[in-house]
Amino acid sequence: MSAFDDLLAFQRQTEALSSVAERLGWDQETVMPRGATEQRAEEMAAMEAVLHERRTDPRIGEWLAAARPEGEAETRVVALIARSHARSSRVPARLAAELARTTSLAQGIWAEARANDAPEDFLPTLDQVLMLKREEAAALADGGDPYDALLEDYEPDTTAAEIARLFEVMRPRLVSLREAVLGAERQPPQLQGHFPQETQLRLSRACASAFGYDWSRGRIDLAVHPFSSGRWQDSRITTRVVESEPFNCIYSTIHEVGHSSYELGIDPDYAFTPLGRGVSMGAHESQSRIYENQLGRSRAFTDWLFHRMGDAFDGLNIRSADDFYATVNRVTPGFIRTEADEVQYNLHVMLRFDLERDLIAGRLDVRDLVKAWNARFLRDFGVAVDRPANGILQDVHWPVGMFGYFPTYALGNVFAGCLDRAMRQDVPDLDEALRRGDATPGVEWLRENVQRHGGLKPAGRLIADATGAPVSPDALLEYLDAKFAEIYRL
Amino acid sequence: MSAFDDLLAFQRQTEALSSVAERLGWDQETVMPRGATEQRAEEMAAMEAVLHERRTDPRIGEWLAAARPEGEAETRVVALIARSHARSSRVPARLAAELARTTSLAQGIWAEARANDAPEDFLPTLDQVLMLKREEAAALADGGDPYDALLEDYEPDTTAAEIARLFEVMRPRLVSLREAVLGAERQPPQLQGHFPQETQLRLSRACASAFGYDWSRGRIDLAVHPFSSGRWQDSRITTRVVESEPFNCIYSTIHEVGHSSYELGIDPDYAFTPLGRGVSMGAHESQSRIYENQLGRSRAFTDWLFHRMGDAFDGLNIRSADDFYATVNRVTPGFIRTEADEVQYNLHVMLRFDLERDLIAGRLDVRDLVKAWNARFLRDFGVAVDRPANGILQDVHWPVGMFGYFPTYALGNVFAGCLDRAMRQDVPDLDEALRRGDATPGVEWLRENVQRHGGLKPAGRLIADATGAPVSPDALLEYLDAKFAEIYRL
């Protein structure tokens, strides 16, 4: 056995254990008896302790030093393990444990504060989380930029400065599109009615099948929040149902099918290695968003959906497939990121990105955060936040310590824009298939050009190789301009 | 931190990890996508490797040597960890891995041989398993009796000799009861009809509730084989449905509720310690069997069930509650242990116990096993085995290396007999409650006298303390004589 083989064998077991921990998380959100929360916390903590011990195992350093990888894949495997080992080793075990404990408690405190619309109950805890995260960021950065060090966990191979430049290009274009759309004479009708849970779930399963979801390696369950979980031979998704809003369930499902299909589409040879997972959260979001938006909210696919929904619910209050397309893509003022349309979504992200960089840099104090959020929201969206649950309290990310995560959502949209342009060039009969409720020609193009590579290439190169052009926000912005100009007759 | 505290903290994590591994097994049998089998095998192997490393960790030996436990519970904890550590350490890692690999493969080969009714396809594999188990038994026995060393895994604190003496008392009494019942003039009617799955499941859930199953810490799912899984705050059961045989689903459910309730009934202070689980398989089976038989198949409970089933299925072909009681307890000739009635069940166990002792001792060659099984079956049951799937191929235990497991089933019945006698003395209004579909007075007696103690006392002492008398088969035999004399008017 060479050092590389030893390293790989050790990593294989670590990957398997990490997959087990993720499965426990799925279990907790879907089928676990409600009385088992303390036990599950103990089980998760035990798994995390084992995983941390393995990730910081000193033998990894020895194997890395002695490994002689051959070819692109082996070289990348070594680089990815080295990065994870270095990161895990930089954070003192005391800090890691303190972070795990504090963020776990903070999540509950945040949920209660949100329910009570009482940010003052939660801000002291957020302050604690932030202090620990700043300490972690400094340890990880090792002299470099602390925010970039946190970003690396979700979107390696990029920097906050690069993302800021991207957002500077996007913001004015999105703001002006938003104004034009909201001021347009034509405003799409709103879907109304009662849409029973069982029918929504049946339709969602049909949509998952339309996008080629592999049922032999996946399943759909109900959960409070939609998410996807797992990889290789077992990637499951969840969805949720609001009986007055069927698009919520349908498009959440398609979104999560995008995430799961990315994992299931990775070259099986990469399973149980660091190549066997989506390369970054931005790359991941590119798949979920292109499934959901560029494919799922297209004129062609909504044509099929319009007729399916009409059949399933015995008629809709929307008259034509054209109107239905407009309804699905309706832009309305709103406070909540997760409910935002394609035009406004990235503006929500940018607000968070700027505030969290200020928090990590120490330029913004948690005590001033509500004021800062509200002022910024008014400036970007033209409306005042009506209550904290619709403002600062809406997202779980900061309470659980996920600073550096938000920009990956917008990056995913940018990647999706690039991929959509190339895919439409390469797959001329895409709309014809979508109109029949078959998204698989698009899905196959994505699997071949993006998904199968797993962690082999950094996200930027992955998208550039797939599209034949460097990453740029132009494709997304042009797509949005054209789409919404058509819908709103701008 | 004292050595005892260190030992306990380490054990706590091991117990949590072991609970995770068990949850994975549940997932595999109930909700896992069918295409995930290879991945799951890899995940289970990784968990087993971690657990084996922990169980044989040399620090355990040091902590054990230095530990100064105080009181009954701490002393017992130390003894149980010492036993597990000694056992794990005696088996060479090479042999443990070989056993895991061989038995995992053997299970598939056995399933196929059973489906094809072809023992010759499977016996060479069984021979391999047996060789490895004999090697393991010799390593574990450390000069003592090899069969007893295997038995210890399932029923510590007893020996094959003790069990054999018990069986010698039971066999003639059971054989003569069996002859009397099968030769009786009155033969109970058979339940006939079509019993839809959904209604069976609804009834089974009602039965689980009647036995006080704690739904906040459990759930019921469908699986190929009924089983219970997990402990402390999370013990789930499975059941199965045959639409022509509703008793199968109903009594499997009650049986598994017995197993799960044992685990859920243990003193919560024992969670994540070796005291936090059923003390032996015999003790476990005593709970599942007393729930299923002495309570669930009683005249009083079947009265309630008769009316519930009549309502649920719009009438039955059984006229009276008396007839229904007889139907539920019907004794018929049969080849299959898991389908056996209360009279014949233990005879099935005794056959396997004698044969497996001969196999482990090297007195019986696998090549002669089919002949030995068939001869013994003819002698004990008076009918010739018609085909191997109804004989040697019916049980999964030997292929997966579970030698020493079978006698615990009969031991559980003996324990249940002892407990039933004491419970009926202590809970005079038991039948009155059962007739209302409420088994909880019995369940509460069992929780107080058996379940809450977890692993605190060896099984024999547990039953003796609960009943005020040493373990003896008399109570079971007298219960069976009286019950079946009444039903068959002997």
UniProtKB/TrEMBL annotation, chains A, B:
GO molecular function (one): carboxypeptidase activity
Catalysed reactions, as listed in the record: Release of a C-terminal amino acid with broad specificity, except for -Pro
The protein's Enzyme Commission number: 3.4.17.19
Keywords of the record: Carboxypeptidase, Hydrolase, Metal-binding, Metalloprotease, Protease
Pfam families in alphabetical order: Peptidase_M32 (PF02074)
Domain of life from the UniProt record: Bacteria
Keyword Iron on entry: no
UniProt-listed InterPro entries: Peptidase_M32_Taq
Main EC class the enzyme belongs to: hydrolase
Gene3D superfamilies listed in its UniProt record: 1.10.1370.30
Role this protein plays: Broad specificity carboxypetidase that releases amino acids sequentially from the C-terminus, including neutral, aromatic, polar and basic residues.
Similarity remark: Belongs to the peptidase M32 family.
This protein's name: Metal-dependent carboxypeptidase
UniProt source species: Paracoccus spongiarum
